[in-house]
Sequence to fold (304 residues):
Amino acid sequence: MVAKYQQLKIGMIQFPGSNCDWDLIDAYQRHFGITVQVIWHQETDLPKLDGLLIPGGFSFGDFLRSGCLAAHSNIMASVKTYAKKGGAILGICNGFQVLTESHLLPGALIQNDCGTFVCRGLSLSPCEGDSGYHKLISDKDSLSIPVAHADGRYVIFGDERKKLLDQGQVLFSYEDNPNGSVDSIAGVVSENGRIVGMMPHPERATDLLMGSSEDGRIILKAFLESCF
Amino acid sequence: MKYEIVVELKKEVLDAEGRAICQNLSSAGYSNLKSVEVSKRFILNLDSGMEDAKQIAEKFLANPVSQTCTVRQLDH
Fold:
């Protein structure tokens, strides 16, 4: 464990239906010695934080659209203020959907083109970009991290898509596109490089005994590095 | 006042649910079926006017990245 990370104050929003929250808490405790502070969605103010996590799951039963009702919950006004001030945020799976529905990241996540829930390990190719996340994954040819989603098809069109690609905001793409995402996009970074959304679950790839790789730790670490 | 809001996927976005329903119906014998498009219909009972109905539709019920919506008043 690296001592410098243990001083970080990391928070995590919890919605009714969040279900990857404790996996994320466990991963940060076990591998980085960080006790993540849980923030219930009905709170109106964020505590003083160095970084904010939005976990996976099915917030509000995925009603209306995945992430939509969560994006309109009480705490999100403070999250938007935090984001505008340059706050570091990592949204995983449903957390990514919450970030696009909140317009903190571009694009939208809709039903997989195959029409089924996809739950399997797969490979991600790092893309080119200038963010701290890009730098930390650039020495890997491929990252092995599982996905588990029904609404993971990332869509973005026209000028928005061009801007995303031109500015190097794609963090990584699927080697074998499981959901029909535009340009096989699996994760994106905000313009300021501080907000990341990704469909794969890094917290499920932190221990070999979980039957996956340990590549998820690289992403969890990259988030911490973005918190300084 | 009641308002009907219909939200559907943009034409350029593949409707995976519609396609699955279409394939299922075709294999059930409806061989003349060419396609199925799925949309969502909301009825709002609002004390205010069309402007609010449109705002709710465009800012909440539909995501402009992937969907379009139509709003109409149902009664007077």
